[in-house]
Q: What sequence folds into this?
């Protein structure tokens, strides 16, 4: 018991350990996924930062390209030098909206607006000078340039650009460092996960091996226990068989040894009777010739007392002989070798009914077998004797006040077959239900010849065939004897021959 | 009695005095007057049978009971049938046992006649008388 409980606890601990291991693996896997996601988002941020930085630079590029074109135009007064300006200015809207869209934080948005504003200021100044120049008012255009407003706007642009690029660069570096750190963390976590998985595999392996060993040991123990149990059963069966044999031998020897003195009692009773006859003849002769010599007592002794005594001795010894023969038959039946064969019960019943035809004819009784009686494999002779006894009993103890009906029914119950021999006879009182099966015991009105042997014999035979018998009866209603046999007789392995 | 043979000595091995007496009475009633030597146990019977007294006594016929106090009749039968001189002596087993196996064993060992003592006395008496008649006509080899 303690062993079993211990084993159970170990089992629970193992399950807990495994669950913990799998939990850790799940955590490692989960964090790994989380890290990967974080990493992806950082990478996206880095990309955004880089894009934003280039957007900032492009804003400055517009201003620079436009200014370059304006300067060339102002210097050369040739329209062709204006092309960088012409190319750059239309890009203002697209670049501004792109910058606005990429600005993720509040400060970025503020900076972007300032930058766009500075660009617009610059572009307005440039547009004005280009406009004046195209109208031929070159001096006025130069005057605008000289007013320094354009240069200031450019300075503002440059300063803002530098500042923003600086901020973004720093942010990029920070993000990049964090991303790198995350990457290293992921490596560490994955390594830990792999180590954990390896450890788990190892632990699982150990546990499985231990479990297998425990199971093997339990199997071995069980096999041992089974072997022990089988041995115990075999021993007990052998004991019972030998005890039974001893009883059989005892019954056999006793009945034989009782017979020997009985031979003497009967023999010498006959000798006594023979001697009495001789004496009687003598006395009769004497009485004829000299009646006065014969006393009345002597005559009485020879004529009545001696024959009476001899008669009682004879009936008693005859009865004793029958009883001894009964025991002998019982013990002989127990020693008989059982030869199982297929027995068709309906045929057996019909044959028995035929042997009892005279008795049933005389009393108007009817013996019938219900159709479909299941057959069985058993010792034919013992089985027939059992049925013969039971049916004969039923005929013998019918109620004379009504026509006898004796029915044999049967059914299969799992590996057993059950037969019921039912009559509407005089029945047996409940207190005698056990007694009728005992040797030399009878029940009810003693108006039929018998030694009280039949049912004892039946029960011994039924038991020998591995069956059981019980009785269901009510006085005045009838009796039903229910016998159950194994459908196929299996000899006990230790059955003595 | 034919020819000049010496009279047969009947050796009766029977522990029950009553049985012995009844057997003797009924054998005599059949007109058998041969000498009857009675032994109540196996040891004394075997001692006699193997002695020179027995070999001098002439031909023997042995009436044997199976249930003896000191040994079984089967043992005695075995000894007799292995004995150089005794083996030809007819052995009549006369016992209460009517077990088939026992009867078979006796014949296997060389018993000549096996008779079950009937409990019913009239039958018993008749059987023994017939045995007596049988003895009176049977030829027994000289020992």
A:
């Amino acid at each position: 018991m303690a062993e079993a409980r211990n084993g159970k606890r170990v089992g629970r601990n193992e399950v807990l350990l495994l669950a913990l291991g799998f939990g850790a693996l799940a955590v490692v896997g989960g964090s790994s996924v989380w890290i990967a996601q974080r990493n992806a988002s950082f990478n996206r941020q880095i990309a955004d930062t880089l894009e934003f930085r280039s957007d900032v630079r492009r804003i400055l590029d517009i201003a620079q390209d436009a200014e370059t074109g304006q300067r060339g135009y102002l210097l050369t007064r040739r329209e062709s030098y204006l092309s960088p300006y012409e190319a750059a200015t239309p890009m203002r809207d697209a670049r501004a909206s792109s910058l606005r869209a990429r600005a993720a934080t509040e400060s970025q948005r503020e900076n972007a607006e300032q930058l766009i504003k500075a660009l617009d200021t610059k572009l307005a100044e440039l547009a004005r000078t280009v406009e004046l120049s195209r109208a031929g008012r070159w001096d006025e255009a130069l005057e605008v340039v000289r007013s320094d407003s354009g240069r200031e706007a450019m300075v503002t642009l440059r300063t803002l650009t530098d500042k923003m690029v600086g901020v973004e660069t720093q942010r990029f570096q920070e993000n990049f460092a964090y991303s790198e750190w995350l990457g290293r963390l992921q490596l560490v976590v994955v390594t830990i996960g792999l180590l954990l998985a390896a450890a788990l595999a190892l632990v699982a392996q150990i546990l499985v091996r231990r479990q297998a060993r425990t199971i093997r040991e339990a199997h071995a123990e069980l096999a041992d226990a089974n072997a022990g149990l089988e041995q115990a059963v075999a021993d007990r069966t052998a004991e019972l068989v030998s005890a039974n044999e001893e009883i059989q031998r005892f019954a056999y020897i006793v009945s034989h040894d009782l017979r020997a003195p009985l031979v003497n009692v009967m023999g010498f009773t006959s000798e006594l009777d023979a001697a009495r006859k001789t004496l009687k003849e003598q006395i009769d002769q004497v009485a004829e010739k000299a009646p006065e010599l014969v006393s009345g007592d002597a005559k009485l002794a020879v004529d009545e007392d001696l024959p009476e005594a001899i008669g009682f001795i004879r009936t008693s010894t005859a009865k004793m002989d029958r009883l001894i023969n009964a025991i002998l038959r019982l013990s002989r039946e127990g020693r008989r070798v059982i030869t199982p064969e297929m027995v068709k019960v309906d045929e057996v019943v019909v044959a028995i009914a035929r042997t009892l035809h005279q008795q049933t004819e005389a009393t108007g009784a009817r013996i019938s077998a219900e159709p479909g009686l299941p057959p069985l494999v058993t010792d034919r002779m013992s089985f027939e004797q059992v049925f013969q006894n039971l049916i004969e009993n039923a005929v013998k103890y019918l109620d004379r006040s009504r026509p006898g009906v004796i029915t044999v029914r049967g059914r299969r119950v799992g590996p057993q077959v059950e037969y019921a021999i039912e009559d509407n006879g005089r029945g047996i009182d409940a207190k005698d239900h056990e007694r009728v099966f005992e040797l030399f015991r009878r029940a009810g009105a003693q108006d039929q010849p018998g030694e009280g042997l039949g049912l004892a014999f039946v029960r011994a035979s039924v038991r020998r065939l591995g069956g059981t018998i019980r009785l269901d009866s009510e006085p005045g209603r009838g009796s039903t004897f229910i016998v159950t046999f194994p459908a196929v007789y299996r000899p006990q392995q230790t059955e003595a021959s | 009695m034919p020819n000049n043979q010496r009279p047969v000595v009947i050796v009766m091995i029977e522990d029950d005095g009553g049985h012995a007496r009844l057997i003797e009475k009924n054998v005599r009633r059949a007109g058998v007057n041969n000498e009857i030597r009675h032994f109540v146990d196996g040891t004394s019977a075997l001692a006699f049978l193997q002695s020179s007294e027995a070999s001098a006594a002439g031909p023997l016929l042995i009436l044997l009971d199976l249930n003896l106090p000191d040994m079984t009749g089967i043992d005695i039968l075995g000894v007799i049938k292995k004995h150089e001189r005794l083996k030809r002596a007819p052995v009549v087993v006369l016992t209460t046992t009517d077990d088939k196996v026992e009867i078979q064993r006796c014949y296997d060992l060389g018993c000549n006649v096996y008779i079950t003592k009937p409990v019913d006395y009239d039958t018993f008496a008749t059987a023994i008388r017939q045995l007596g008649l049988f003895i009176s006509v049977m030829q027994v080899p000289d020992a």
Residues 337-486 of chain A form a domain with the Heat Shock Protein 90 fold (CATH 3.30.565.10). Chain A touches chain B at residues 252, 256-257, 259-264, 266-271, 317, 321, 332 (CB under 8 Å). Strands of chain A lie at 340-343, 366-369, 376-379, 405-413, 416-423, 468-474, 478-486. Chain A is about 70% helix and 10% strand.
